[in-house]
Amino acid sequence: MAKKTVNRKKQLRKQLADLRRASKDLADVAVQKVQETTEQVAEAAGHVVESVTERVHETVENLTHKTEETKTKAKKTAEKAEKSSKQAAEKASKTFEDFAEKFEGVASARLETFYEEGIKSVKDFANWTEKELLELKGIGPATIKQLKELGVKLKK
């Protein structure tokens, strides 16, 4: 019986050695597969990075171009606005000057008050009473007297 036990031990040792070899071979195959997969993933990631980088560069170029277009448009708009503003200011000053010429002897500050309140011609005074005019800042009885001397007719 001792012989059977020895054979059984030998047999078990042999099986254990076979299992160890098989597990080592299996581990080597697994490591090789992991390395291959890692290489494939790294390659795919490289392609993705290149693609994304290319798209980012295209987007930056597009945005730069659009920014330049917007700057150009904004500059043109600002120039037009400035020109319009100057023209409006010139027109307003000419209009006020025309208004002021009709009222020689009346202080320009009083005329500006009238002009700001919407009185822009001799006819506009016909819509205002003497009392309403006296309520305006800087307008007093002397100014009303000057207007009447110049032939301005007021609302009664």
TrEMBL record:
UniProt feature coiled coil, ranges: 2-29
Entry keyword set: Coiled coil
Keyword field contains Coiled coil: yes
Region Disordered, residue ranges: 64-91
UniProt-listed InterPro entries: DNA_repair_Rad51/TF_NusA_a-hlx
Keyword Coiled coil found: yes
Any Pfam family hit: HHH_5
The protein, known as: Helix-hairpin-helix domain-containing protein
Source organism per UniProt: Streptococcus caprae
Source species taxonomy: Bacteria, Bacillati, Bacillota, Bacilli, Lactobacillales
